[in-house]
Amino acid sequence: MKLLIKNGTVVDPANKKEEKADILINNGKIEQVSKSINSKDAKVIDASGLFVLPGFIDMHVHFREPGFEYKETIESGSRAAAKGGFTTVACMPNTDPPIDNQAMVEFINMKSKQVGLIDVKAIGTITKGRAGLELAPIGELFKAGAVAISDDGGTVMNAEIVRRALQYCKMFGMPLIEHCEDVNLAGDNTVNEGYFGTMLGLKGIPASAEESIVARDIMIAKDTGGRLHLAHLSTAGAIELLRWAKKQGINVTAEVTPHHFTLDDSALVNYDTNYKMNPPLRSKADVLAMKKGLKDGTIDVIATDHAPHAELDKDVEWIQAASGIIGLETAFPLIITELVNKGFLTLSEAVKKITINPAKILNLEKGTLSVGAEADIVIADIKKEVVITEEFFGSRSSNSPFIGSKLKGSIEIVLKSGKIVYENK
Amino acid sequence: MTLKHLIALQDISAEQITEILTLAKTFKEVNQRNIKKVPILKGKTVANFFFENSTRTKTSFEIAAKRLSADVLNLAISTSSVTKGETLIDTIRTIEAMKIDMVVIRHGVSGVPHMLTKNISSNVINAGDGMHEHPTQGLLDMFTILDKKKRLEGLTVALIGDIAHSRVARSNIWGLIKMGAKVRVVGPTTLIPRDIEKMGVEVYNDLEKGIKGADVINILRIQLERMKKHLFPTIREYAMLFGVNTTKLKAAKSDCLVMHPGPMNRGIEISPNVADGAQSVIEEQVTNGVAVRMAVLYLMGGGKANEIIN
Fold first, then answer.
1. Structural domain range at position A205
2. Structural domains in chain B plus CATH codes
3. Taking CB atoms and an 8 Å cutoff, what residues of chain A touch B163?
4. Number of domains within chain A
5. Confidence (pTM)
6. Does residue A284 belong to any structural domain of this protein?
7. Residue A7 predicted with pLDDT over 60
8. In angstroms, rounded to a whole number, what is the distance separating the alpha carbons of residues A332 and A407?
């Protein structure tokens, strides 16, 4: 079956392309990209006035299966991803049981195929049971199809284990993704250390809790030459360290979430637990540093840290409330509204950070609109308004601080391997 | 003025504070009568939810409500953890379903009274939430100062000790600044929370400098378990650096009032001589607490300050 996307503006940063072009899809693959393609037997999608982009890749999601299916499943998460334009995601391993062995990776891959909406990749743990004490079977995880290793949700506090894991991963070319938060400095604190935490009587996580681990891991990456990726950076100092490391030629990449480049800790004044996340929302200056880090290329990737939680996890006392928000479906509108429309990134630069850049980090042959590539394609209207409501979400959870927001940037059609997996009707 | 909830002094205006303090003066007079009971809240039910131990605040609210003829329900609930069964909101809704009118809540987690206002229809009075605020304590402290000094505006008030963990400090800061006082916070660098100066206070890490020329000092209780969190090395050292004794008190004005929200650690943050000395108004704070809480409950019940109470 052939599909022809006509009259759209193709933005394909991997091929340095931004032009009006048609795309012909045959058997789930891109067969031709050029001006004015005509095909008698193809079904035509008219993309006049719309942008045609490579399918997005989110290298940091929590799909909660197995163990927490009441929050999200691979099925509901895939639906949310498709709606948000993400045709590939990588699941963090903090499930119950955690993804720390071959069977668990195979389970994720099997579920992904059964659901069949998007590609759901597994990230394995760094340590057994995410306990931070001994290495997980990293080679076995890799062979089963894990795309990275991470103990996300917590930091591997033992620097020797981080060093050995980074060394060991080199054999597989696989990145180690660190959640940067010194447990002693962070304690059981829940908000940014600063004026708002002080005012609200909520104990603060100092910026140094993140920055000290960023600095530690950068030096270990320098020492080992291992591939380090830093998850969800949130402080200006962390970006500064990253900028320095890149200047030294150290093998390190990093991501930032849409909420950390959009929201600051002044949003906490009503104790709304949908603003409780980890890392916490930081100061206005930190938010600006995220935007600048994205603009100058210091930050490689935008990842959502999609963290579904049910009402019963959130509708409790602040301290007991779960951390995190869902992000797959609000990511693109936030990127357009906060970064593109405010002049921090061009559309092409923004698309790069959710396509080819994460693809390269995870060694995926994805994120382009090259001829021969899988037809993972997003058709978007960046001028169209999106109103975020509770009903808007395909996710099983609706823990989003953006409910009530009006944003720009609507996902209209999403193709996975040439098949329509989402259509905005 | 009617008051739906009292969650934080940050949220209310100088005019509202003045009205409460003026009304409290009338109730203080009621408390000195032979018959101390007035029928203002007859038929109303006040539920005291105390999720943290408290003797003085709970008793004070109970007496205040009873002197206004309300029926009072005391619930001491040791746990609030969702994993141990019923959620907090369910617990309170259950009691509310029995048709109560006002909820007084003390809870160890900042923001809980705020959360209740979104989930129940009764009036909510914050009797202390985590490290956030303790608005009736702030009001009774201001009432006590006003009673002695006849003004708040232009006075210099020093809050001494563990500012970081103190809800009393935060309520005092907001209230006093709104009323035109100058507020200093005095304590070890580890117990002064980041960016507190943005609340409008001056920060001191030296006790004698911090109380120099002060009209009022309010000495906060030091929690002995703070040592375990590496916030200061020893109680002995804390007492040496920040304990107020008669010698150090001389740095303040000679008529400086000495306050303490209680319970005191005698010999640690305050020496017995200072606690029991001529400048101490610590017991009067407790007395005034009842009057201030009566004023707050009265306003919640729909009463107006200019009504004659008889």
1. 55-361
2. 5-134+286-300 (3.40.50.1370), 135-282 (3.40.50.1370)
3. none
4. 2
5. 0.95
6. yes
7. yes
8. 10
Using a CB–CB cutoff of 8 Å, tell me whether B234 touches chain A: no
Residues A282, A327: one domain?
yes
The burial of B273, by beta-carbon neighbours within 10 Å (0-12 exposed, 13-18 middle, 19 or more buried), is given as middle
Taking the CB of residue B256, how many other CB atoms lie within 10 A of it?
A: 20
Q: Is residue A394 part of a domain?
A: no
Are A83 and A44 found together in one domain? no
Quote the minimal CA–CA distance from A294 to chain B in Å.
28
- pLDDT tens digits for range B57-87: 999 999 999 999 999 999 887 654 444 578 8
Q: How far apart are CA A127 and CA A131, in angstroms?
A: 6
pLDDT score for B306: 56
Contact B144/B285 with Cβ under 8 angstroms?
Answer: yes
Which of A270, A283, A317 to mutate against chain B (most B CBs within 10 Å)? A317
A106 and A244 within one domain = yes
Given an 8 Å threshold on Cβ–Cβ distance, is B129 in contact with A201?
yes
CB contact under 8 A, A271 and B87: no
Confidence band, pLDDT 50/70/90 cuts, at residue B308 = very low
> Could you tell me if A180 and A276 lie in one domain?
yes
How far apart are the CA of A224 and the nearest CA of chain B, in angstroms? 35
* Residues whose CB is less than 8 angstroms from the CB of residue A244 and which lie 6 or more positions away in sequence, other chains included: A218
